[in-house]
Structure to design on (369 residues):
């Protein structure tokens, strides 16, 4: 046996003294141990954390995607159910077969009619009448009011078998929505594409369901014992209906009432499309169902067409909805004593031209409302 003294064990020359704290080389006391963890291929804590992070991230991403898909599916189902539940009436348009598909980049004209239909009332009249034009670029919606007392020529119909002068709301009484739309086409020369009708109970239900709307009321007034202060007021249900029907104690009568109606419709559209409704699945579904239950549209407004129009919208905010009043030049009285609004023929011609040529922005700029 050799008596040569054995040299003490040493750590490999490349070892860093700081490695002792990581226990890479032994038991923490500097002793050389068995095969190191790294050499054995076992991952360190740092390595394990690195490997776990991508899995955690992917899992979280998957959960987020599933949530988004679930919400979108719910919305799609809600919208589909609501759209399929809308009452469609082929008799609303004068000739549904003559309505042409809307070409991309062309404006769309909707006739909006609010009727005084309600339980206990025989027959209905057009209480408000507007043409809502969605511009060709889909960035603006123009709400054009036609005063119910405008004195116009109404085409021959079953009640009055020849063209005759009368208030425009007589068209609804004599021939319903179809005759009203035919009358609008006659006095403007503008092709009307679709029709939407809502009655008093529907208006009450809708404003209740969306939680009311806040509008600015420029002048105080009272309707059937309900007082409306000047300034910002929040309206819903019966109170909202009274607000849009009041006219007798307003400074400009029917003109001010029409302005209130446009303001309410603007507020309803804004509220229906607000984050508080869109981000709340239950509220969104409820609002869609109320629209479905309380509106009637022409048969050309199929679910597919409504989706197509909706997805083309580029409205940015409430400022994208522009209010316009069809012009009148004064007031008159018929031979049988009816008070009516005299149409401003030149002004109406300019408005009609703007509607036909998709130049409503120019019209509004030249005719401040």
């Amino acid at each position: 046996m050799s008596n040569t003294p054995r040299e003490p064990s040493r750590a490999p020359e490349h070892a860093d003294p700081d490695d002792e704290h990581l226990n890479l080389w032994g038991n923490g006391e500097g002793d050389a141990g068995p095969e190191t963890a790294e050499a054995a291929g076992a991952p360190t804590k740092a390595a394990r954390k690195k490997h776990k992070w991508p899995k955690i991230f992917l899992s979280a991403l998957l959960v987020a995607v599933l949530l988004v898909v679930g919400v979108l599916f719910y919305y799609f189902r809600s919208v589909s159910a609501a759209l399929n539940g809308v009452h469609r009436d082929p008799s609303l348009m004068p000739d549904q077969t003559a309505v042409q598909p809307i070409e991309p980049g062309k404006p769309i004209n909707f006739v909006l009619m609010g009727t005084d239909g309600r339980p206990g009332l025989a027959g209905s009249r057009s209480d408000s009448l507007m043409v809502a034009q969605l511009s060709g670029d889909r960035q603006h919606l123009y709400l054009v009011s036609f005063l119910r007392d405008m004195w116009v020529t109404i085409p021959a119909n079953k009640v009055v078998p020849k063209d005759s002068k009368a208030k425009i709301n007589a068209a609804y009484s004599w021939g319903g929505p179809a005759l009203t739309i035919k009358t609008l086409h006659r006095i403007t020369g503008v092709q009307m594409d679709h029709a939407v009708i809502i009655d008093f109970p529907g208006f009450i239900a809708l404003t209740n369901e969306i939680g009311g709307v806040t509008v600015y009321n420029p002048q105080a007034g009272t309707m059937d014992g309900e007082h409306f202060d000047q300034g910002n007021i929040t309206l819903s249900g019966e109170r909202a209906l009274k607000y849009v029907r009041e006219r007798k104690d307003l400074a400009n009568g029917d003109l001010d009432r029409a302005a209130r109606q446009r303001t309410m419709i603007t507020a309803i559209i804004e509220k229906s499309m607000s984050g508080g409704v869109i981000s709340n699945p239950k509220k969104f579904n409820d609002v869609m169902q109320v629209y479905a239950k309380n509106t009637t549209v022409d048969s050309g407004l199929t679910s597919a067409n409504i989706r197509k129009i909706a997805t083309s919208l580029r409205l940015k905010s409430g400022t994208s909805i522009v209010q316009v009043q069809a012009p009148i030049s004064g007031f008159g009285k018929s031979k049988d004593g009816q008070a009516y609004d005299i149409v401003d023929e030149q002004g109406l011609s300019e408005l009609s031209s703007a509607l036909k040529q998709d130049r409503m922005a120019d019209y509004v700029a030249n005719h401040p409302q």
In short: DSSP finds eleven helices and 15 strands in the chain.
